[in-house]
Specification:
This protein is α/β, with parallel strands linked by helices and 206 residues long. It has one domain: Rossmann fold (3-Layer(aba) Sandwich), CATH 3.40.50.360. It is built from five helices and eight strands; from the N terminus they run H-E-E-E-H-E-E-H-E-H-E-H-E. The protein has a six-stranded mixed beta sheet, with helices on both faces. Helix 2 packs across helix 5. The longest helix is centred in the last third of the chain and has 20 residues. The chain is globular. The protein starts with a helix and ends in a 12-residue tail after the last strand.
Length: 206
């Protein structure tokens, strides 16, 4: 097959991915995580923590927080909050080479073990973008010590290579809202539930 023909096919696929966004929004959930049910009437008390370079991750964070009626906090302001006062911590980051940002990496490393958690990421790289987003989410999940109820990713405008200029769009926001609702439902209706007061969690790092 002619090399120029192959190149044209690959370039056309690249452009299609860049321009249309090709449904890269996905959510996965973990039904094996034990849910710690609090007797607090505000359960699950949630907190969304994020870093954002281009505003993409902040938009998704605010959408999730609105659905859960909880604060959406940039990681730079997290010192104002006590993690152990929350039932559910949801952490978001833009994807940088298959990794979360350095600030989110440091937050995940230094935070006490949460009672329950979830993670999300936005990405703008075409073609391999979903793979790098998955790598980022998996790395974040591992830092959460077996408490992660779900993972969510969606497209975001990449300021450098100018891909996906319309994302996160209304559908991405709707998907993020559905993700938040499902995470809340897992907290409320999970079969693997431990009832009663939540165990005390130390502020010391494990």
């Amino acid at each position: 097959m002619n090399r120029n023909f192959i190149f044209r096919i690959l370039f056309a696929a690249f452009l299609a991915c860049c321009m249309c966004g090709c449904s890269h929004t996905t959510a996965t959930f973990n039904s094996d995580i034990q849910v710690v049910r609090s007797l607090d009437p505000d359960y699950p008390k949630a907190l969304v923590v994020y870093d954002s370079w281009s505003g993409n991750t902040q938009l998704v964070a605010d959408t999730i927080a609105e659905k859960l009626s909880c604060p959406s906090v940039h990681v730079d302001q997290i010192a104002e909050y006590k993690i152990n006062e929350y039932d559910l911590i949801i952490i978001g980051s833009p994807v940088h080479g298959g990794m979360p940002t350095g600030k989110i990496e440091d937050f995940l490393t230094n935070m006490p073990k949460p009672k329950m958690s979830a993670v999300f990421a936005t990405f703008g790289a075409p073609l391999l973008g979903p793979l790098t987003a998955n790598a980022c989410l998996n790395k974040m999940e591992k830092k959460l010590q077996g408490t992660c109820l779900g993972k969510f990713k969606c497209l975001g405008f990449h300021k450098i290579i100018r891909t996906y200029p319309s994302h996160p769009d209304e559908q991405d926001k709707a998907d993020a809202s559905k993700f938040a609702e499902e995470i809340r439902n897992l907290c409320l209706n999970h079969d693997n539930m431990k009832s009663g007061p939540a165990p005390e969690i130390s502020d010391e790092n494990p």
